[in-house]
Amino acid sequence: MNKILLLLGIVILFGCNSNPKQAFPIPNEKDINEIVKAVIKADSVYFSDKKLSVDLYKIKIVRPNSIDGVYIPPPVGGNLNINQLIDTVHYKKLFFSKKDSLYLLFQNDTLKKFRIDSSLVTNFKTTTNAIQAQNRKIDKPESFIQISIPIFSLDQNHAYIQNDYLCSTCGGGMGIFLEKIKGHWKIVQAFRTWYS
User: Fold this and answer.
1) What integer best gives the mean pLDDT of the chain?
2) How far is CA 153 from CA 9, 17, 93, 162, 193, in A?
3) Largest CA distance in the chain
4) Which of 3, 47, 63, 120 reaches 20 to 30 Å from 34, CA-CA?
5) How far is the C-alpha of 157 from the C-alpha of 155, rounded, in Å?
6) Is 99 exposed, middle or buried (0-12, 13-18, 19+ CB in 10 A)?
């Protein structure tokens, strides 16, 4: 009897996982390319005379930190505080819901690299992140536009993306919220994230 109880206890102990991995959908390539297309189309004059990196960069979603109740901002360089997404209001309602928070963090470990479909950039001068890194190493930086990999809501109907204009002496960035309306991605809100 004791052996049966011990065996049953072991099965229950190993069978119960207090932190199960949740299966989330991985954002699909078509939606990512459609979002990039919507951003380029909305500001085609801005994109027309600048090089565009075909490599999207990764935004890392971070949880807020505080010491003794004082908020510490996330480190710069492609990081975004999750509250900046969760607390965004559009037309008097939250753009991303609290239900999206785990999915937003899940996206940190998915799609670390993404290359824009070549059909979207046939009319643009293009570059890659590797070429730009090499140019910076030899002290010959070029001006170019870099776009982030979109961050999606769990229902795949809301997204956030950034685009940055980088040059040796100036630059600026935009944060862009998009919504899928009748099957098409539309920009619903845009704001400046930085400039120099």
Assistant:
1) 83
2) 40, 26, 14, 15, 20
3) 80
4) 63
5) 5
6) exposed
Half-sphere exposure of 195 (CA within 13 A, CB side): 3
Q: Three-state SS for 140?
A: coil
DSSP H helices, the chain, are 2-15, 29-42, 44-48, 82-86, 101-106, 129-137
Closest-CA residue to 43 (of 160, 164, 152): 164
Distances (CA, A) of 155 to 87, 94, 189: 18, 14, 19
Q: What is the pLDDT of residues 57-84, one digit of tens each?
A: 999 888 877 666 676 665 566 678 888 8
Q: Quick: pLDDT tens for 153-196.
A: 999 999 999 999 888 778 888 999 999 999 999 999 998 888 88
Helices within 28-128 (DSSP H only):
29-42, 44-48, 82-86, 101-106
